[in-house]
Design a protein that fits this description.
alpha/beta
């Protein structure tokens, strides 16, 4: 089986999990607390979040912690930029039905992001992530400054994820029950 087939198999396995709303709420709260007390969070002035899909952890409660927040905004040609947002309620539906900053939101240079909170379908203990398969996010992660921390449910942390040369190693992964640092 080649790497693309391996990735498809892991995506199918992870997509088969069903998360109950109470489980999502509890897991999200645990990960938010794990992030809140981390050195990376404490040191960050500007944090790049993601707008969570229904099956992803909700880290938006961290937006009350007095930092500057930005979110990904999809541009043409499979490119993302970071744009400022004062509140999650300012997000609008964008490409692929994902919430993002409105077009008039100010773009922030990639080198001004101190901490990137990264979603994924699976994370390996070597701190590589498996996304939804389009590759946009990994290409963008290479441009962003700051620490890159993946967040996921405990079942999303697996021994290894299949990877290709363009896949980006994160600095760490936070789940409700553990924190894994890149080696």
């Amino acid at each position: 089986m080649d790497v693309k087939e391996q990735k498809a198999a892991v995506r199918a396995k992870m997509s088969a999990f069903s998360i109950h709303p109470e489980e999502r709420t509890a897991a999200s709260a645990a990960v938010c607390e794990r992030l809140r007390v981390s050195e990376q969070w404490q040191a960050a002035g500007t944090v790049l979040f993601y707008a969570p899909l229904p099956d992803e952890l909700d880290v938006l409660p961290l937006m009350s912690d007095g930092k500057r927040f930005c979110f990904p905004r999809y541009q043409a040609d499979r490119v993302y930029v970071a744009a400022w947002v004062d509140a999650a309620e300012s997000l609008v539906e964008g490409q692929f039905g994902i919430l993002e900053p409105p077009a008039e939101a100010t773009e922030i240079p990639a080198n001004e992001v101190d901490l990137v909170i990264v979603p994924g379908l699976a994370f390996g203990k070597g701190c590589y992530r498996l996304g939804r398969g389009r590759g946009f996010y990994d290409r963008w992660l290479t441009e962003l400054a700051g620490h890159k921390i993946g967040v996921g449910y405990d079942h999303q942390l697996i021994e290894t994820v299949p990877r290709e040369d363009h896949d980006v190693q994160l600095d760490g992964v936070a789940t409700p029950s553990c924190w894994v640092h890149a080696s």
